[in-house]
Amino acid sequence: LTEHTAHSAWLHDDAFAALGSRRVVVAGDGALTGTVAEEVAAATARFGGAFSRLEVGDGVSDAELVLTLSPPLVEPVETPMVSTGSTGEGTDESFRLTREAGAVVVQAASDAGLLHGLFHVVRLGEAAFDGPDADETHAPATDLRMLDHWDNVDVHPVMGQVERGYSGGSIFYDHGYVHADLSRVERYARLLAAVGINRVAINNVNVHTREARLLTEDLGDVVRVAAVFRRWGIRVHLSVSFASPITLGGLDTSDPLDQDVAHWWVRAAARVWDAIPDFGGFVVKADSEGQPGPFAYGRTHADGANMLAAAVEPYDGLIHWRAFVYDHKQDWRDRSTDRARAAYDHFHPLDGAFSDNVVLQVKYGPLDFQVREPLSPVLAAMPHTRVALELQVTQEYTGQQQHAVYLGPQWSQILRFRFWDASGGEGGSPTVADLATGRGKAVEDPGTGTWRKPAGGFAAVSNVGDDEFWTGHPFAQANLYAYGRLCWDPALDPGALLDEWAALTFPGTPSAVRDALHTVLDRSWETYEQYTSPLGVGFMVRPGHHYGPDVDGYEYTPWGTYHFADRDGIGVDRTVRTGTGYAGQYPAPWSAVYESPSTCPDELLLFFHHVPYTHVLQSGSTVVQHIYDSHFDGVARVEAMIGAWSEVSTLVDPHVSERVSERLAEQLRSATEWRDQVNTYFFRKSGIPDERGRRIY
Ligand code: GCW
C-alpha cells in the first residue's frame, strides 16, 4: 500500500474501480488508442470487468462503456481566430460523452481526445455510469498547456540538480546523464496526461554548458525522453541558449541578424525535427539574469525571437520567449529604476513585431511569483502578440513544499481577473483566462477594436522530482493537479478540484479525511500570505535560497526588490503622480484604482504606495496593526491546520501521514519565525505597540 500510494498520486489503482468493473470496448487505431486500450485492459483485469478491442463501427451491443475514434464528430468549438501559418495548434483534443440507458459512449476525433475522454471517465467514477442521460462535448480551453522543468543535466554548484526544486533530484537527469531507466518519467507522463498537460520543456531556462548540448550532441537523450511522453500525447520542448551558435557552433557571434547565425539555427532545427518529428519547440530566457540575448548586438527581442521562429516554422514549431527581462544589477540607491516596470517597458513597444509562432511567456506578476502581486500589465498590453500566462507550481516563494499551500485559489483569482473592469461584475470584458486562451471576448482588443493573434496558452514551472511522493509535500501534488485542470478549463472551481484530487488520490477514505483536507488547504494560500510579507510588498525572504524570513535580506542588493521601510512608513511608490509611474502601465480603470491609496485594494497597498504605519486601510485597521494581526492570525491558523490533520492522520496511509505531519511541524516552526521577525521588525521601526498587547520581541 505504501509504495503504491506514494507513486500513484491521482491515479491510484482504486480510482479505476468503476471503469474496471464494467464491460468496456475500445475502438480505433492510433498510438494513443493503444495507450487507452492498455489502461482499460489493466483496469478490467484488476476489477473483474471485460475488455475488447474492436474496429470503429463494429457492433458493441452489450458494452457499458465504449471509447471510440469517430471522426468527424464534434462541432468545432468556439475558435474565433483563424490560425493562419504555423501556430503550433493542431490536434483536436476534444471528446464527446453520451449516456443513454446507462451505456456510456466516448467519441473523439483524435486518439489524443480519446485519452482525455478515458481520464474524464476515471475522474467521474461511478457517476460516469449512474448519471442521467447526457450528451456533452468537452474541449480544452487552449491547445498550449505546458509545464516547464527547471532541471539541470549536471548538478549546478548553487542550484543543484533542479533549480528551485523541492522534491529531491530530477526525474530526467542524474549527475550529468539522462536516467537509463525512464520508468519514472513514464509514470509522470501518465499523471500529466490524466490532467490534460500536453507539452513539457525538459530542461532549465538557465541553460548551462552541459544542458546546451541537448540541442546537438546529446539529442539522442531527448529522443528517448520524447518517446516516453509521446505515448501519453505530450510533446517535448527544449530550453535553448541564445548563444548556442557560439558555444556549440563555434561561430564568433550569435547576432540574430547575422546570416551564419540564422543558418546555424536552421540546421539545428532540422536535426531536431528529423530525430523527433513531433518536437514542440524552444523556450528562451534571453537577456535575463545573465543569460545571453539579442541586446548584446543592439538587436530587439523581436529580432531574436523571429530569427528562431523562422528556423522552426517549417515544422510547426513554437518559440516560447520569456518576458522576464529586467536589470538584475541595479543600484539600490537608484530610485528611478523600478523592476516592476521592466517587462512592459521592454515588450510593449514590440507588440505586433513577433512572428505568428512566437509565444511571449509572461509571469503572472511584474516581479517574481510572489504570494501576492498585481497582474502583469504586459498580459493586457500586447493585443497583436500571442501571450502565454506563466505560473509557478514549484513553491519557490510560497513555502517550498515544506508548507502546505494550495495555489488553486490564487491561480483561479488570476485567471478571472479583468483588466478592463474593476467592478468585479461579469461585465463581459475579457478575463486573463480569455487573453491566454483566445476565447470569448478576448479576441477583440477593447482598447483598439482590432483582432488579437491566436493566444499563447499556459506555462508553469513543475514541482516534481524523484521524491517518493513526487512533490516533497504530498499535498503539493494538488497544485500540479489543479494547474493541469485549470489549463483545460480555467473556469473550474479550485475547491472542487481539491475534491477531485483527493478522491483520485485517496479513494475510499472516509469523508472526515476530505473535510480535514479542506480545513488544511482551502485557505492555505491566504494563511501563507498572512504570516509572510504584508500587503503585497513582497520578498523579505532569505537571499539565495528564498526560504524563511529576512526582512531586509534584499533591501540593499542589486535585485530591485525593495520595501523601503523606515521609521515612519513602508511601501513602494509606484504611482504616476509621485512614484515610478508603474500604475500607469494598466488600462483604465485599474490605472486609476491603483494610483490612489484610497481605492487601491488593501492586499496590494504596499506594492503601489509608500504610506505611514498609521495609514488606515479600507478594512479600518492601521497598516502596522494589520501587520501584527495578520501575523498572529496566520500562525494561529497553522495551529488549527495541525489540529484538523491530527484528527484524521491515522485514517490515511501512515507513510503519507507521517510526511504530512513532519511538514506541518516545520510549517509551524517557520511561520512562527516569520511572525516574530516581521512583527519585531515593524515594532522596532515604528515604535507603535500592538493594540492587543501580544508578545513582540
Ligand atoms: O524566480 C526566479 C528564480 C530563478 C529563476 C528565475 C526565472 C530559472 O529565483 O531561479 O531562474 O526566476 O524565472 O528565470
UniProtKB/TrEMBL annotation:
Its EC number is 3.2.1.139. SUPFAM superfamilies: (Trans)glycosidases (SSF51445), beta-N-acetylhexosaminidase-like domain (SSF55545). Residues 471-694 form the Glycosyl hydrolase family 67 C-terminal domain. One of its GO terms (cellular component) is extracellular region. The keyword GTP-binding does not apply. Keywords: Glycosidase, Hydrolase. It is an enzyme of class 3 (hydrolase). This is Alpha-glucuronidase. It comes from Promicromonospora sukumoe. The lineage of its organism: Bacteria, Bacillati, Actinomycetota, Actinomycetes, Micrococcales.
